[in-house]
Amino acid sequence: MLGLAKGLKYTLKNLTREKPTYEYPHEPLPLPDRFRGIQKFYPEKCIVCNQCANICPTDCIQLTGKKHPDPAKKGKIIDTYDINFEICILCDLCTEVCPTEAIIMTNNFELSEYSRDELFKNLEWLDENDENIRKVNKA
Amino acid sequence: MLRTEEMLLNVGPQHPSTHGVFRLVLKIDGEIIKEAKPVIGYLHRGTEKLAEDLQYTQIIPYTDRMDYVSAMTNNYVLCHAVETMMDIKVPERAEYLRVIAMELGRVASHLVWWGTYLLDLGATSPLLYAFREREMIINLLNELSGARLTFNYMRVGGVKWDAPEGWIEKVAEFIPYMREQLKGYHTLVTGNEIFLNRVKGIGKYTKEEAINFSLSGANLRCTGVKWDLRKNEPYSIYDRFDFDVPVQDGGDAWARYQVRLAEIEESLKILEQACEQFPAEGDILAKVPKIIKAPKGEAFVRIESPRGEIGCYIASDGKKEPYRLKFRRPSFYNLQILPKLLEGESIANLISILGAVDIILGEVDG
């Protein structure tokens, strides 16, 4: 029975230790800067190069571009940009390949919705998602 | 004389002690198991088939989801295979970062096993202790890679991020703390008479059986076979570190328990040396082409994951996607011996035997 008593002593000693649990969701969870959360999208920075859609392992990014409204300028601007968060795995590859940092990660991770349709996020929603934006995006 | 008759009992796939979605169909006579049939595949996602349509960089997030308790080793085995094919030399700083991340993952993985195994055996509090320390490791890896479980940290030719400022010091601080806690674990559980009665002499097999069933990792080392790929076929920079390979002769659940806890200590030794030798500066990514195309041919590499030998086979026809990708997933192979071990055992021992094998269903089903 000695081993049992020793274990019990250890348990009692730990009874007064500081609690290691988080107060989430009553208090926001502290997360490091590199944390990969829901993306923020800058439509004005996007050059419609399609690299993010091509690198996406789950094919969750759909985008279309249109001609630049100013005829003097070449290239395209973004028209629609949708991410399907039902299948997005937040792997960070889209932000890694983006040449203009038009898509970057934020520290927001709360994605639960009452309806599955609401998990399709469009350009406006991703543009407005501008809190806790990651400061350093590339190594 | 009491009349008994055989009964079919279905354990799982939603049973908490099966560590995921593992199902066992048992033929029992009273409380004694006559025959056990494992049923797997509930978590099959077809990683290997999906990979045939993906570029090498795109496969890395999928490997995170195989052995989700130590995703770093899975990241490494794929990158290592592609690097072997393309003959890429990984920068030294990246190698150190990889080793530190993998060994932290190994400690975290063994902590999960320790906590959940004791939870299976009826001890609730060890899980809380183990997860307290694991949370610290997860936070360290979160700071490094930006995720808590699915790290997606390694890249072909190096790693994605350099260590943040002060991170190596934090890892170095964690090592003595973990050593102290490990002593506490031994006080709490290792000497406990109830626990010893549940594990000693349970699920016993011999050296020959282990080799014939192609077991690896702690499941092999518990029978006295000193085989660890980090020592026997050093990959990465493991030949620079001084550490032992813990071995036990018992071949039972108790031996496996001792091997795993000793492995945590050895991993801490490696971490300590890696933090000391960590190069002050250097590249973290070798010069690799933007679109990775493995040359025509095939390669097979194997490394030591917390559960055993994880291997990766790539057959390439020179395109940016692999022609065929195959993982040798240690949990799947280790599980093979289970029906043999369960024969003639009681239902109460089933939990103890299955837990001691240490399976991760994401890896079993692939």
From TrEMBL, chain A:
PROSITE patterns for this protein:
4FE4S_FER_1, 4FE4S_FER_2
Instruction: Give the cofactor note text.
Output: Binds 2 [4Fe-4S] clusters per subunit.
| One matching Pfam family | Fer4_7
Please write the reaction equations for the catalytic activity of this protein.
a quinone + NADH + 5 H(+)(in) = a quinol + NAD(+) + 4 H(+)(out)
According to its UniProt record, where is this protein mainly located? membrane
Membrane topology term: Peripheral membrane protein
Single biological process term from Gene Ontology? aerobic respiration
Q: How does it assemble?
A: NDH-1 is composed of 14 different subunits. Subunits NuoA, H, J, K, L, M, N constitute the membrane sector of the complex.
What family is this protein classified in?
A: Belongs to the complex I 23 kDa subunit family.
Q: What is this protein called?
A: NADH-quinone oxidoreductase subunit I
Which species does this protein come from?
Cytobacillus oceanisediminis
Q: Its encoding gene is what?
A: nuoI
TrEMBL record, chain B:
Which stretches make up the NADH-quinone oxidoreductase subunit D domain?
Answer: 120-291
Record flagged with keyword Acetylation:
no
Which of UniProt's keywords are assigned here? Cell membrane, Membrane, NAD, Quinone, Translocase, Transport
Entry EC no(s): 7.1.1.-
For molecular function, the Gene Ontology terms on record are: NAD binding; NADH dehydrogenase (quinone) (non-electrogenic) activity; quinone binding
What is the topology of this protein in the membrane according to its UniProt annotation? Answer: Peripheral membrane protein
Reported function: NDH-1 shuttles electrons from NADH, via FMN and iron-sulfur (Fe-S) centers, to quinones in the respiratory chain. The immediate electron acceptor for the enzyme in this species is believed to be a menaquinone. Couples the redox reaction to proton translocation (for every two electrons transferred, four hydrogen ions are translocated across the cytoplasmic membrane), and thus conserves the redox energy in a proton gradient.
Quaternary organization:
NDH-1 is composed of 14 different subunits. Subunits NuoB, C, D, E, F, and G constitute the peripheral sector of the complex.
Provide the protein name.
NADH-quinone oxidoreductase subunit D
Q: Which organism is it from?
A: Cytobacillus oceanisediminis
